[in-house]
Amino acid sequence: MSGPAAATVQGPSLPAGRPLVAGRYQLKDLLGRGSLAQVYRASDLQGGPDVAVKVAVGDSRKHFERIDTEAAVLAGLQHPSIVRFFGQGVVPAGMPLAGRPFLVEELALGLSLSDAARRSRYRAGIVAGWARGLFEALAHLHEQGLVHRDIKPANLMLSGLRRSPVRIIDFGIVAAAGAAPEPGVSSGTVHYMSPEQASGGPTCYAWDVYAMGLVLLELLTGARAFPGTAIESLVARTLRSPEVPDCLGPGWSSFLRSLTAMDSAERPTAADAAVMAGRLVPAPAEDINSPCRRMAVFPARRIRQLA
Question: C-alpha 93: how far from its chain's center?
Answer without folding.
Answer: 32
